[in-house]
């Protein structure tokens, strides 16, 4: 059965920008293979589950195909199944709305806006 190092695989399938970045993530404890902390030299084989916190996002992928060299993005996505849950929806920030053509806000309107912006209203 074919296998490769986790740092090389993460770089090859374009989950990490550079191989040193992938190795640093492994050394920092941000990469797990089958729920075990992975060193950069940890071997991966098809069927392994990889959890990698690269940047701000944690990716959960299943290894489908092992490759040694970096490939194009279209080929890279065929090497893993992405099991990452979708990010939570971003809450919409309320915006103060004025009627079109209402002119400049009056002193009373301005006070209400300032009160709303400071969170007291």
TrEMBL record:
Domain of life, per lineage: Bacteria
Source organism of this protein record: Mycolicibacterium goodii (Mycobacterium goodii)
Record's compositionally biased regions (Basic and acidic residues): 111-121
Protein name, entry field: RNA-binding protein S4
Limits of the RNA-binding S4 domain: 4-65
Entry GO MF terms: DNA binding; ribosomal large subunit binding; single-stranded RNA binding
Family classification: Belongs to the HSP15 family.
InterPro entries per UniProt: HSP15, S4_RNA-bd, S4_RNA-bd_sf
Region annotation (Disordered) ranges: 99-121
GO biological process, one term: cellular response to heat
Keywords noted in UniProt: DNA-binding, RNA-binding
């Amino acid at each position: 059965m074919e296998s490769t190092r986790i740092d090389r695989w993460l770089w090859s399938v374009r989950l990490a920008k550079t191989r040193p970045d992938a190795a640093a993530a492994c050394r920092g404890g941000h990469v797990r293979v089958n729920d075990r902390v992975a060193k950069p030299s940890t071997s991966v084989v098809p069927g392994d589950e990889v959890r990698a916190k690269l940047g701000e996002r944690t990716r959960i992928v299943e290894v489908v195909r092992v490759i040694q060299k970096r490939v194009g993005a279209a080929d890279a996505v065929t090497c893993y199944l992405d099991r990452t849950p979708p990010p939570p929806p971003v809450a919409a920030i309320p915006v103060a709305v004025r009627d079109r053509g209402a002119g400049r806000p009056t002193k009373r309107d301005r006070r209400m806006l300032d009160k709303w912006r400071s969170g007291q209203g």
